[in-house]
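In response to the reviewer comment on reproducibility (Comment 2.3), we provide here a single inverse folding case reported in full, input and output, so that an independent group could reproduce the run without further information from us. The structure tokens appear first.
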């Protein structure tokens, strides 16, 4: 569950939501009706990886 302070990022055309909780947890949530795996191309995978790295760095500050 996100708080008002958490910014939700969307990747893979909005099929994956990512946010960091104030507690330090980083959440990835699949957003499709059947909770199916999400196919990502190379660019989308790099976007997700860069986002996760940025969130971890922000948590460490």
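Designed residues, in position order:
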């Amino acid at each position: 569950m996100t708080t008002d302070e958490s910014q939700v990022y969307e990747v893979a055309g909005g099929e994956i939501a990512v946010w960091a909780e104030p507690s330090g947890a980083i959440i990835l949530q699949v957003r499709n009706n059947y909770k199916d795996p999400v196919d990502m191309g190379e660019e989308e995978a790099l976007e997700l990886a860069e986002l996760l790295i940025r969130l971890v760095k922000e948590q460490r500050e």
